[in-house]
Amino acid sequence: MFGRRGMSVLALSETKMKGKGECVFGSVSGRMSGVESGRAREGVALLVSCEVRRCVVEWKEVSPRLIWVKVKFRKELWVFVSAYGPGSERNEEERVTFWNDLDECLQGFGANVNVVLMGDLNARVGDEKIEGVVGVHGVPGKNDNGQRLIGMCTEREMVIGNTWFRKKEIHKYTWVRQSGGRVIDKALMDYVVVSKVACSRLLDVSVRRGECGGMSDHYLVEGRLRVGMPWVRSRKSGEARKVLRVSVLKNREKMCEYQRELGGKWNMVKEQMVVGVEEEWQQFKSAVVGSAEEVCGVRRVGGGLRKGSEWWCEEVRLAVAEKRCAYEVWLQRKDRESYECYKEKKRDAKRAVHEARAAADERWGRQLTDNFRENKKMFWKEVKRVRKGVSGREEKVKTEDGRMLNEGNAVRKRRAEYFERLLNVEEDRDAVIGMDGRESRLNVLGELNEALITGEEVEQAVGKLKVGKAAGVDGCAVECLKCGGAIVIEWLVRLLNVGFANRQVQLDWMSACVVPLYKGKGDKYECGSFRGINLLSVVGKVYGRVLINRVVEGTECMIGEEQCGFRRGRGCVDQVFVVRQVCEKFLAKGREVFWAFMDLEKA
């Protein structure tokens, strides 16, 4: 509906979603504000198009009933507020709190900001004209919330847009109560309210009865607003990117097809003469990534977009479309026959959704079982995701002086500055490197210093890689190497020996993408509470593992017996055991024990 009607901003009321932060509905994203705990109730959200999202200046979740977004169009500032007012059945204190919060919110925007208030306010303003606030095209009926809305609009110089446009009676009411296909009550309770200085920009406010498809007793209220050309913010980062569908390589046929595709390219390259380090790397990268992309395909991640639910399919889409058409026919005819037809289509759509969800759950269960047998990491990752549930992501960070940043680009810039300063420490004095015994240690490696890298070394290093890990900036995933078989091993031997012989490292191997992960303690808005995880090139890791294995082989005899934690067969558990044994022996003799522990911050 959002894309079909070409919407820019959509306000949702009574979402009954918990938490605050980013939310995604199909291919549209925005932010939500709901209760933190307890029974799911109330809740509001604002969804924006990609064009508007690029112009967002600030988001603010005020309460489970109130959220707003500030947008800059050219030199104009606009604020879109989504509000959900408490009904007359709620207690007086709750209603007073909501209207006070809304009034305080509108007051804080300032005089140079154009404000648009949208949502289900549970207010009835009547059909009596009030100069500069209520027009002559309202509907009968007024309640306490309506009086509060009129008073607030009078004080804040705002106009109730629904009442200023001539419409048919059926296109004035935004809420209906039905019983047996008959309307027993109706009212105007969903509004588009704008600042008086911007009322000339409001071109129309209409009720679209068929868009809800009978899923709600409220209709869609659509307002058309004229604004200046958008002020486009730079989007150099945070855009959607392509990722290889490496999970497809689990299929034996796909893996064989990938090896055949890669083998054809390798046969052409191995007959050629060895060229420079970067040229050899570009040949390998383009062949591996290109073959995997051709066989497996790609998926888009990031950018705030997603394709939708796993259970959504063509059958469900057709059933929902037929139900919507039947609903529109019933809205026009209002007879018993069309109502029964609509009910039948509604049951068919509900049945199709139920069957599609059951099939999706069955597929999910089979995948979970396979992961438990073959990939424990992915199994527990999915279990944790289900346990925690899906909540909105909240991108906020504090500056050094304590100011809060919540706009995407500003947050990313702040994190980049933090990690750049953390990882590039400037010392006042030059580093002093001890040379004692350096020559003797290098001689221990013997022929390994000059010997070319062998296929066995590469195969052993590739075998140590773990699947399911994110690729580096080059896009080459672990699965691309492991599923390539002997072809990849042979090609890697040539590639790594070129760099080893020339004492050079490819530029992509020296580049890393830093991803901040919360440590689980401390202020979530402080950069210091996050540790940076570097996503490195997988092929660069293979090269590094080959060199490390050579160093370990040549220096194992030189490391003291007390060194553990980084050696095979000597883990941290062994150190804990030694500490415990020493303590027991000393205590048995009645002697004191002194231990010193040092933890290097951000080591």
Offer a concise description of the structure.
Helices cover 39% and strands 18% of the residues. The chain is an alpha+beta fold and 603 residues long.
What features would you describe in this structure?
- By secondary structure, the chain is an alpha+beta fold.
- The chain has four domains: 9-225, Deoxyribonuclease I, Chain A; 234-302 and 436-558, no CATH class; 314-388; 561-603, no CATH class.
- Helices cover 39% and strands 18% of the residues.
- The protein is built from 15 helices and 20 strands.
- A six-stranded mixed β-sheet has the order 5-6-7-8-12-9, with helices on one face.
- Helix 4 (252-269) crosses helix 13, helix 7 packs across helix 8 and helix 11 packs across helix 13.
- It is elongated.
- The model is unreliable at 231-238 (pLDDT under 50).
| C-alpha-based Rg, rounded | 32 Å
Distance from first to last alpha carbon = 51 Å
Largest sheet: 6 strands, mixed
Broad structural category: alpha+beta
> The CATH topology of the largest domain, please?
Deoxyribonuclease I, Chain A
What is the strand arrangement across the widest sheet? 5-6-7-8-12-9
CATH class of the largest domain: Alpha Beta
Number of domains: 4
Query: Per the principal axes of the C-alpha atoms, what is the gross shape?
Result: elongated
Unreliable parts: 231-238
Percent helix, as a range, is 25-40%
InterPro entries: Endo/exonu/phosph_ase_sf (IPR036691)
